[in-house]
Batch of 3 targets.
Target 1
Amino acid sequence: MRISEITSANKPYIRITKGKKKVDVPIVPKVVAVPPSKLGLRKFAFLGCDNIKVTFKGKTVRLNWAFNHNRMTLYCTGGHKAYSWNNVKVATINSSKGKREHLIVCRREFGDETERRRYKRYPIIRKIKVTQGDYSFMASTADISYGGVGISVKRNTRVIPSEPLVIDFGDSTIISARLVRTVFKEDGSELLGCHISKGYKFEMMKIVNHDEAVAESLKVKEKENKKDTDKGWTEGEIKRWH
């Protein structure tokens, strides 16, 4: 996949790594016209994008371009595959219209196929309560895996990435997680991507397997109900009355 082919549908984000610390920052791609004065950039592969925002200490701020000194990797999905571009940088230019635009620049046009998810994600929706210190809010899950959970909230939250979250599923299942990625949506809602430690893998397996079992039982009951119906029978099909 080419870096220039990335759209919002590919769910791109930049992973910033500094030592052992990592933070994933979502980006919104856009078409940027590079002016003639910046023709030197054309020897690189690049992707135009909106201002990159990051949640820091409970506040939403624009990405500081000093992050270029850290290791940054661009990730996205395409079909059933994931792609990555290592050692990307962020540049700010004045477009042909005089507007300041942002580019994600890389020396390689094509991304490497990669695997971002260790565990399969299941589209399970559950009402949950999320707590961080004295701050708590109600939300719902968007997807669940053995090692993570996607949380959908209708408004911006004051979650601090470095602090642990306590997630209560309402059935005596309470786990601890950490925020690793935030996606801001146009309707003002957020999608919080959270990592769950291996110590809670058994609890996550119970949630996933239970919900899958319930879904499967509903399918079986639906099939049985269809078998019990007498719709479609005609008098000529009945060979003998008892």
Target 2
Amino acid sequence: MTRLRDEKAGCDFRQTFLEHYLAPAWAQSWSFNPGSDTLLRAYSRVLLDELEGRNTDPRNEGVTVTTTPRRLMRAMSKWAKDGAKYHFVIARALYGSEAQIHEWVGNVVRGPQGPRFFQSVEGRADSLLWKRDYFRHEEEVRLICIKREPTVDEGKLKHFQFDPNETISGMSFDPRLRRFEQLEREAVVRGLGYTGPVTEDSAYHRIILDIQMTTEWPDPA
């Protein structure tokens, strides 16, 4: 939304909205963060039963998968061939203060292209990459699908075929799960055809420090 002075209407400001310049778009989020307790707990729920040690909320349990920009770009290239009416972009999120984001939008709409900048692939992608500093810990990378023509909305979800063994470079399960449940989860994904590496996430393992001392410790008292 932008505010403009409207001399003809005899009022100080009128409101205009950018939504009419924005083509339909869909985004999938990845992260450069190699491991985060905050992100894990945001996307995975594990509540262990005290007696059985099983997760009582498996429906909301998450799985960590890793990939590379090159693998994602290969998948995007296939989608672009099959869906000529879409553009595909992959880029790192841009973080800034609210004031910085406000200034960026203002500079764009006051620039040579005005709001039509957001009708370009670059402009539409940029509009989906800016995030507030509050979310900087996510270190997000977004894979964006942009429709070439701003026609009828196709719905909130966009589905594309991909080969997990080509796109996913590794997988691990929630480290709060007991080992027997992690093995059960691995058996399931193997049964579905995944052949890539599955590693155990040791983030919550207890650490034992074995330090060789050359002197005696003083009495703590």
Target 3
Amino acid sequence: MEYKVAKYILIKEDIIGDIKSGILQPGDKVDSESTLKKKYNVSTITVRKAFNDLINEGYLIGVQGMGTFVRKKQMIRGLTSISFSDELLQQGYQIDMLVDKIEEVFHPSIADILEIPHDQSIICVSRVRLANDEPIAYQSSYVDSRILSIEQANRIHENASFYKTLKEFKIFPTWVNENYSVKQVNDSRIAKLMNIKKNHDTFFVKRIAFDELDKVIEYAETHFNKDWYSVTVNIKI
């Protein structure tokens, strides 16, 4: 017996096929509702059902007033490694960074987090994190200048990794505490570096890294582009 495939399923399968074959690339705009209605001789309801399913299944994303696009592959954080770079490498991404600035600052509230005197200078290393040449995050790390000098911090240009730079100077974080929230990027310069609009919502992560003696060695703040980033947590009972 021959069974008919529902038209919305046919539309879904064709779009998924085009994504998997590379005809449709991440960020590409898919055909409009009106185009698909004519192509498949179906109603608006049928096309919307296909689109809704594809959006819920993570293949597409709808942008109000602009259309429907192939969703960019998200970086899935499994919280299995201190190094975000290591997790991305394990998922097959090409990673890189653009160093924005390395400076010596005084910051009382961050000094409190680092558990150092307010008059002690702090080295701040700010950089844009890239995956497959796309900016996915803006990250600033703060370290006591007595632990890492500004000259040593500049080694990040050669190492292309903050944690490799720490390791080079015998600084070894062994565990971290992270706090996740949603926060807008209000700095237009940072928004431009992340290729997002100012006041765009991001995943905001505050990280405190500790050594084996539970001494604080780094405080970091990171804005992750929410369109590129998700977190998966496994809980065993």
